[in-house]
Amino acid sequence: MSGWSIPMDRFVKHGADKLDQACRKIVLTVYKGVIMDTPVDTGRARGAWTASTGSSPDMEPAGAMAQTFELDKSGRATVAAMQATVGEWVPLSGRAAFLANNLPYIDALNNGHSKQAPKHFVELNVIRAGAIAANVAVGGNGE
To answer: Fewer CB in 10 Å around end: N or C, the chain?
Structure first.
C-alpha cells in the first residue's frame, strides 16, 4: 500500500504558524491604514496612535497627553513603532492587539471634522479587514 503521512504535531504547528502570520498581516495592514488615514494638520493626531498587545495601551489622561505626543506628519515613525509592537505579537497566544489614540479630539476627526480624511476613517479600515483577510488567504501581502 502506498501513501504518505505527516506527523500531526508538525501539521498543527505549521498551520498555527501560518495562521499567526496571516493574523499579523491583517492587523498590520488595518492599523497602518488607520494611522495613515488620520487627518494631518500638526501631525499630533497621527503621532498619537499607540499599539500594544495583551492589554490596552497605558495612556495618561487626555489633557496631559495632548501636550506630550510626538508630531508625526508623515506617519512613518508611528507606523514603525506600531509595526515593531505588532511584529512581536503571537495572535494564537490569546493576547489581543490594540491600537489606541487618547487625544481629546480624535473622535471629532473620525466623525468628519476634518475634510482631509473620510468620515469614519477608523471604521472604514476595520471594514477593510475582510478584504485584507481574503487577500492574505490566497497568499497576498494584505495590501
So the answer is: N
pLDDT, mean of residues 84-98 = 90
Nearest alpha carbon to residue 97 among 19, 49, 42, 28: 28
Rounded to whole angstroms, the Cα distance separating 96 from 18 reads 18
Query: Is the same domain home to 48 and 94?
Result: yes
| 94 and 53 both lie in a single domain | yes
> Could you tell me if 47 and 90 are in contact, meaning their C-beta atoms sit under 8 angstroms apart?
no
Tens digits of residue pLDDT in 61-80? 444 444 456 799 999 999 99
Residue 57 belongs to a domain: yes
Q: Would you say 72 and 78 are in contact if contact means Cβ atoms under 8 Å apart?
A: yes
Same domain, 61 and 112: no
Integer Cα distance of 19 and 92 in angstroms: 8
- 82 pLDDT band, cuts 50/70/90, is very high
Distance CA 85, CA 79 (A): 10
